[in-house]
Amino acid sequence: MNAPAAPDRPARLAGSVAIVTGAASGIGRSIATHFAAEGATVVIADRDLPAAVAVAATLPAAEAVGLDVGDPDAVEKVFADVVARHGRLDVLVNNAGIDDTGELTAIGNDQWDRMVRVNLSGVFYCTRAAARPMKQQRSGRIISIGSNLGIIGSVGMPHYCAVKAGVHGLMRAVARELAPYGITANTIAPGPIRTPLLDSLPADLVQRKLADIPLGRFGEVDEIAPTAVLLASAGGSYYTGAVLNVSGGDVMV
Q1: What's the pLDDT tens digit per position in 14-53?
Q2: Which residues are catalytic?
Q3: How far is 253 from 243, CA to CA, in rounded Å?
Q4: 125 contacts 110 by C-beta, under 8 angstroms
């Protein structure tokens, strides 16, 4: 993935420090790349540290850290270390996530617990860790990647739909609690986007989903990143508690 061309205008995130989880690939990598192009110092936080290091090496001001977002102690350490190094934390993007399928009666306890651990508890742990320095600064932007399936549901993915709906609810609560500190919290709810997660799903499910999309195609990762840049920048200062659908018309609200 190539970095966006340098804009012919002031960088919108100059001086900002941002942590993007799950940024070694897919939507997270695209967001990190766009943030760096807008002048941010970006922390590429991913469980796959070698891949995170490779991404960071392509960006002008980036560093890589290994992070399992489902491990609360690891989250606290990584976030504290970032603040110690840079003196602040301006933006958190909760992007790390997993995806799988299963009918309701076939989903085992371990499968459910793993989905909750990564896709919901991980968002909570990272948001909690980011809120501490942001409250002290009295500023900050928290952006979580939800899903259109957290709004409309899907056959064969009840566990995934549940945790993504939970992310939407968590961000609304966080938005209300942290607004007095000048901190915004919003959710981006993508439709199906061409990523390794999409490729991992059964082909019949993917084709059924494609047929549902009014624009007749899946989205690309670089079609999600500009919304994250908006929410992280001065142009997004009056968004909080919002769920922004970027779904090709799959969700219309």
Answers
A1: 999 999 999 999 999 999 999 999 999 999 999 999 999 9
A2: 160
A3: 10
A4: no
